[in-house]
Each structure stands twice: as C-alpha cells, then as structure tokens.
Write a structure and sequence with these properties.
The chain is an alpha+beta fold. It is about 50% helix and about 15% strand. The protein has 23 helices and 18 strands. The strands form three sheets. Strands 10, 11, 12, 13, 14, 15, 16, 17 and 18 form a nine-stranded mixed β-sheet that branches. Strands 1, 2, 3, 6, 7, 8 and 9 form a seven-stranded mixed β-sheet that branches. A two-stranded antiparallel sheet has the order 4-5. β4 and β5 form a beta hairpin. α15 crosses α16, α20 runs antiparallel to α21 and α20 runs parallel beside α22. The chain starts with 6 loop residues before the first helix and ends with a helix. Bound molecules: adenosine-5'-diphosphate (ADP) and magnesium ion. The site of magnesium ion has 3 residues, from loops.
Length: about 700
C-alpha cells in the first residue's frame, strides 16, 4: 500500500458520506435525506429510489459489484449477505440495478441467528432496515449498508435498534433538562470513543494451537520465565513489523471513514491499542466493529493473527475496550465539560448527579452489559477494574460534592444556594493529572471512561444500558424541577439530596486493592464476580420497567437477550472444555508418553551397557505419575461435561461451578508437565515462543 498518500484525500474515500451525497444527489433529495437523518423520519420511497441509484453509481465507481445489508444480530458479530447489482436484460446481457426498496429494506433468512426464543423457526424471516444515520461504504467490492434488524412481529433482533432507541431516549430527556436552563436544544447525542486493545501473534504459532483457533484463547501454557513484570512493553518502541501492520491498518480505516488516531504498545508483550477520535455512539459502534474486523484482516497480510479475546494468555494482562462517553448538544456543547461560570456549573452538576445516580441504581445493568465468559477472566483479576461497579470523579469534584452535601445541615437556603451556585464553586479545573486507572467508571475531565468492557464486546450493549439509565434519571430530574416554584432552590435541594443518597458509589481509592471488596460490601455495592452471578439481575422488575418506560426493550425482548447471554456463556465454556479434551488426548498426553518412552529407552540402553540412569529413571517415574493424574482430570472433565444440564436457567451456574474448576485442575497438571518435557517433544508453541517472537 502506498504510504506516501495524502491522508485527507484517502480519508472517507470509500464512504458515501455527506460530501458525496451533496455532490451526487439532486438538491431536494439531499435535503429530504438530511431531514430524515436529523429527525429520524422514515424515508419516502421516491426519495429512496433517487438515493439508491446515486449510491449504486458511486459504489460502481469504487469497484463494487454487490451490496449487503450489514447488521449486528444479538451475537454482536456483524452479519452480511451479499447480493449483486445484476439484473438480466432480454438479450442475455445484464444491467446493474439497485432500487430504493432494496436500499431501505432487506429480508435475510434469519433463522440461524439466535433469537432467544423470540422468533419461532417457522417464522424465520426478519427484515433489515437502513440506518441512514450511519454512512454506507464500499469494502472488498461490496456496498455495505448499515441496517437495523427486526422480526416481522416488530421485535428487535439486533443491537443497533435498541442503541438508536436509547439514544432517542436520552436525547429527549436531556433536552427537557436543558429547557429548564433556558436552552432550546432539539437533539442531544451521546458520543463515544472506544479504545481498543488487541494482541498480535505470529500466524505460524497460531496455526499450531487448536485452542487459539477454536476458542480464541490458550487453554494451556506455563508462565514464561519473563512475564510483564519489567513493564518494558507499555508505550515501548513499536517493532517494525508491527509498525507496518499499524500503518496499513490506519490507511484501511481512514478509507472507511474511521477516525483512527492513536496507536501504542500496551502492558503485556505483543499487546497493542488503537484509539479513534470519538463520534456519535451508533457510528462509533459501527466503526468499532469495522476496526476489529479490519485488524484481523490486515494482520493476516503481515503474517500475524490479531487476537481480540479478553484473556488470550493466563497470567498476562488481558484486553479491554474503554468506552469513553459524553453528551453533546446540537450546538456542539459538551454537557460534561465543567463550566467556567456558576450558571453552567449548575447545569454540569445536574448532569453529573444524574450520571452518579444512574451508575448507582443500575450497577447491575452496567455489569451485565460487559458480562461474558471471556471478560470474567479479566474483571477483578488485578489488571482490569474489579467486578464491582464504582465511580471516580477526581479530588476537585469530590470536594465540591462533599461541600454540597455538607450544606444540608444549613437550614439557610441562601447559604445552600451559595454553595452550589456561586462562591464555593470556582471554575472547576479540568482534571487531567489525577487519573485513577483502577476505577471502572472514571471522570476524565469532560467525559466518563467506562473501563469494564472486554475487547471483543460490541459496545452497543454497554451504551444501551448507560444511555437508558441516564435518560431515566434525567427524566426524574426534569419532572421534579419543572414542577418547582423556585428553580434554583429546587435544583440545589435535588443535587444535595441525590449526592447524599448515591455517594457510596464514588470511590477514588485503588480499585485493585484487597480491601476494596470488603469496603464495597459494607457500602452495599454489588459484587457480581461472574456472568452467572450477573444474569439473574437482568430481568428484574426495576430493569424491565426502565427499558419499557423509555421504549428501548419490552420484557420479552429482555428475556430473550438474557437467554442469549446465558446460552453464549454456556456454549463458550462447552467448546473450551471439548477443545481441552481434544488437545489432551491427541497432543499433550501422547507427547508426554513419547518423551517418557525416550527416557525409558535411554534407561534400558544405559543399563544394557552397565551404566546406571538414576536421573532418567526418576524422570520417567515422575512423568508417569503426573500423566496418570492428568488422565484422571481429563476423565473428570468428560464426566462433568456429560452431566451438564441443558436448560439455560441452571447451566451457566453449573459450568461456572463445576466445569471451570475441572478445566483448571487439568490445566495445572498439563502446565507442570510442560516444564518437565523436552522442548522438542512439546506439541504446541509455548508462551515464551508466542509472546517473545522477534
Ligand atoms: P487516554 O484515556 O488514553 O488518556 P484520551 O483521554 O485522550 O486518552 O482519550 C481517550 C478517548 O476518549 C479517545 O478515543 C477520545 O476520542 C475519547 N473522547 C474524548 N472526548 C470525548 C467525548 N467528549 N466523548 C466521547 N469520547 C471522547
Ligand atoms: Mg483510556
């Protein structure tokens, strides 16, 4: 790829963005489309026909022959089915055609996507609908049309639809609140910048590891002599091969309009990060999906494999995805930017209070939004935030909140007002130095950074929960304040009351410390250590009421999502257990036996010439004993997997409590054997080899 190309020309060159639309669409069509995008109205079919035709001509000019409705089913992994533009003529030739109908609506056969019981198999058809707020683009000869995915009964079957609904919900409530501050705002959007961590390893190593191929993580592997204790990888110089990968990745992403901005090495060996410039949440979500996929594709061209699993290597830091989140008005005001005037500080504090209350009241949902078998390895493992949801607001803001709270003892309303409104509230300094890296939900100057999401997560999940929870608090605040006689004193009282009620969620200390779980328990915070711990909270009345009230999910839709989460968890562990058995039987145990045989042969040969072989003999005995122990653990895995319940109610807990410990026990012995068997005999690349390639 040409590395000297001009970035501005490259950027978005494969995207049907506003500038292309302006160029290629008649003025009235362009205006109608923009109105649709801005106001979320359905697109008129006549307009859609004109847009489709222009889009097709543009796509053909970019080398496209096909189009696809690109959607994100409930698995979170984007799905696509490609149709060519060809349409036959009578004379045996073809035309390239694309209608408005095809643009707006598609009907993929949806029967194989998980629906959590929502869609009976005989009604397998769902449909996809264009989301004009996310630009179409051309990739590998296909025009990609970002779409939402629903069943014919109208139930949502994807992650985009609820995300768009949650964005509408928070926009509506935030606009109501802003109105109370005298601002006429039509739309508040949530913005997200997801920082993406990943591992790059040699494809040749990957290909020799069935566990990496089938499960995305290593199920065996003794710790290498050197781990990450030297802290020499973080922000270290980027290896030339990796740099070449990163350069090509940037170019591919820029072409697709992804605002790839920052790249660096991460804490673990072979671990790296990419951060984009933030954008509107649904675009950030689409772009993050594209980023992950592009990483995998480009890695192959460089002889690498990109691992997006949350914990590819035991004992080495796993990968997360920081969800930087804020709210921005249609005039570009960042609502989480602390103001420099007392009046705007009041507004800032009200939004801050809503977020604090939301995070506290919906801790369970935030935890659920990041729950997966893979992420369970990270949370609380001294590398990622604990499984306890808490917030970091920084010293200055905490001091302000404390002052507000203390003001409660003053009966003098004026004084209370003063505390919130003027004198004790200096312009709030932007907190850039005092970063708390151990907090799951940290205020970082003008946005919140949610650090619990795992690296493979579709960030729609997290943002649906966050947007809707904050929408609810803003709704309550708007209701209360719009009914107040004296806005300022009602505002002061509200901030004071809610700060007091929810301050237990604020924790500025070290989230990795051993004392924190005990302290959190004292505070009454949830500590949902694993996915099975979190699942039962999903469909509580409190949570169902939240989503129903804001029109994001119905109870049935939530139940189906909960079921899919449980199923995915169980399937993941089931595949891991079977993969482990396969590797034990076909690779590890035979290798140990072969090595033992070599040693035993040596003993016999030495003995035949009258030489003692005490070392070899001791090794054979030790290996034989350990192999027997390993075989016992192997059959234990078989037994517990066979006995696993099939229903999604009890299976997650069973896999967590019974299958995981069985796998851990087998791994422990296998890893010990790895240290005893000669390198030439060990059948799979070791951690040292994989992590310290040159
Ligand atoms: P770090 O957390 O590594 O110090 P930064 O604070 O510079 O990095 O930014 C991290 C991410 O936060 C970037 O993706 C950036 O675009 C994003 N970000 C910055 N401002 C906002 C905002 N207002 N809304 C959402 N994301 C934002
Ligand atoms: Mg960060």
């Amino acid at each position: 790829m040409n590395t000297t190309c001009k970035v501005p020309e490259l950027f978005g060159s494969m995207v049907f963005n506003e500038s292309v639309m302006k160029d290629r669409l008649p003025k009235d069509t362009f205006r109608a489309l923009k109105k649709t995008i801005r106001e979320g109205l359905p697109l008129d079919e006549a307009v859609a026909n004109v847009v489709a035709s222009a889009m097709k001509d543009w796509a053909l000019s970019k080398g496209a022959t096909h189009f696809t409705h690109w959607f994100q089913p409930m698995t979170g992994i984007p799905a696509e089915k490609h149709d060519s533009f060809i349409s036959p003529n009578d004379d045996g030739t073809v035309l390239m055609e694309f209608s408005g109908k095809e643009l707006i609506k598609g009907e993929p056969d949806a029967s194989s996507f998980p629906s959590g019981g929502l869609r009976a198999t005989f009604e397998a058809r769902g449909y996809t609908a264009w989301d004009p707020t996310s630009y179409a683009f051309v990739k590998d000869g296909t025009l990609y049309i970002p779409t939402a995915f629903c069943s014919y009964n109208g139930e949502i079957l994807d992650k985009k639809t609820p995300l768009l609904r949650s964005m509408d919900a928070i926009s509506k409530q935030a606009c109501r609140v802003l109105k109370l501050f005298g601002k006429d705002c039509k739309r508040v959007t949530t913005t997200v910048g997801p920082e993406q961590e990943y591992f790059l390893i040699n494809e040749s190593d990957y290909k020799q590891r069935e566990d990496l191929i089938l499960t995305g993580r290593t199920l065996f592997g003794a710790m290498p002599p050197k781990g990450q204790e030297m802290d020499d990888h973080y922000f270290g110089a980027i290896r030339p091969r990796v740099a070449a990968f990163m350069a090509e990745l940037d170019q591919e992403l820029w072409r697709l309009g992804v605002l790839s901005k920052t790249k660096h090495n991460e804490v673990a060996p072979c671990q790296h990060e990419l951060a984009p410039i933030f954008s509107t949440t649904n675009i950030a979500t689409d772009h993050n999906q594209l980023t992950m996929e592009t990483m995998k594709r480009v890695a192959k061209r460089h002889g690498f494999v990109c691992l997006l699993h949350e914990k590819p290597f035991d004992g080495v830091n796993g990968s997360g995805k920081h969800n930087n989140w804020s709210l921005s008005t249609d005039s570009g005001e960042n609502l989480l930017e602390p103001g420099s005037t007392p009046a705007s500080n009041k507004q800032f504090l009200l939004f801050l209070t809503a977020i604090i209350k939301a995070v506290d009241e919906y801790q369970d949902l935030l935890r659920i939004s990041v729950a997966s078998a893979g992420n369970d390895h990270r949370l609380g493992a001294n590398e990622a935030p604990p499984a306890i949801v808490s917030m970091f607001v920084g010293d200055e803001i905490e001091a302000i909140l404390e002052a507000i709270e203390a003001g409660q003892t003053h009966t003098d309303v004026d004084k209370t007002m003063m505390r919130i409104g003027v004198s004790v509230l200096p312009p709030i300094p932007k907190d850039t130095t005092d970063r708390n890296r151990t907090s799951p939900f940290a205020f970082t100057g003008n946005k919140f950074e949610f650090r619990m999401p795992g690296s493979t997560l579709n960030i729609a999940c997290t943002n649906i929960m966050l947007n809707t929870a904050v929408a609810e608090e803003l709704r309550q605040f708007a209701d209360e304040l719009s009914a107040a006689v004296d806005f300022d004193s009602a505002l002061a009282a509200l901030i004071q009351r809610e700060t007091k009620a929810h301050k237990h969620i604020i924790f500025n200390g070290n989230g990795y410390s051993e004392d924190w779980p005990a302290e959190a328990e004292k505070r009454g915070l949830l500590n949902l250590r694993s996915t099975p711990d979190a699942i039962p909270y999903y469909t509580s009345d409190k949570n169902v009421n939240l989503f129903q009230r804001h029109g994001v999910y119905t109870r049935i839709e939530m139940e189906s999502r909960c079921e899919i989460l449980a199923e995915e968890y169980v399937k993941t562990l089931h595949i891991e257990a079977l993969t482990m058995l396969d590797m034990l039987k076909k690779q590890i145990i035979p290798a140990v036996i072969a090595y033992s045989k070599d040693l035993a042969d040596t003993v016999a040969v030495k003995k035949s010439i009258g030489v003692d072989a005490p070392v070899e003999l001791a090794m054979v005995k030790a290996l034989t004993e350990k192999t027997a122990a390993l075989v016992e653990q192997q059959s234990n895995i078989e037994t517990v997997v066979l006995a696993a319940p099939a229903d999604s109610q009890t299976a997650p807990r069973y896999y967590h409590d019974t299958v995981i410990p069985a796998m851990e026990a087998a791994r422990k012995i296998a890893d010990e054997l790895e240290m005893m068997v000669g390198e030439a005999h060990w059948p799979i690349p070791t951690y040292s080899k994989i992590l310290y390639y040159v």
